[in-house]
Amino acid sequence: MNNEKLPNENDQLKETKTSEMDETVLKAENEKLKAEYELLKNQLNEKTLKCDEYLDMLQRTVAEYDNFKKRTQKEKEVISKDSICDTVAAFISVADNLERALCATEKDCEYKTIKDGVELVYRQFRETLERLGVEEISSIGGKF
User: Which fold has domain 11-131?
Assistant: First the structure.
């Protein structure tokens, strides 16, 4: 006789139960991993949507800032032109009076009349500067 052990039914039954338990455990772990995978996938999709939303907000903000810069530059140009026009308009009357004084010198060469006319124009010139907010700085004998 051979001393080899023949597998008995108990051993086979144990192996079957063990393999069935292993399969059950593997299936349970597999299901758990699938559920975790789906959860992570959903979280990733949510984060991706949030990132897309933030990117869209950033792009809109950049576009708005560019528009703001362009609009501000145009406003500065308009303000600059308007201020130049206002300043020139304030001095037109001074220029007119200087022309009148020059015309008066051609007709009437009396020194007193010319002096009075130039003094009037000079006074008008200083008043125009004052209206524009220009003040004289006293620097004679002091630091400028």
Answer: Hemagglutinin Ectodomain; Chain B (3.90.20)
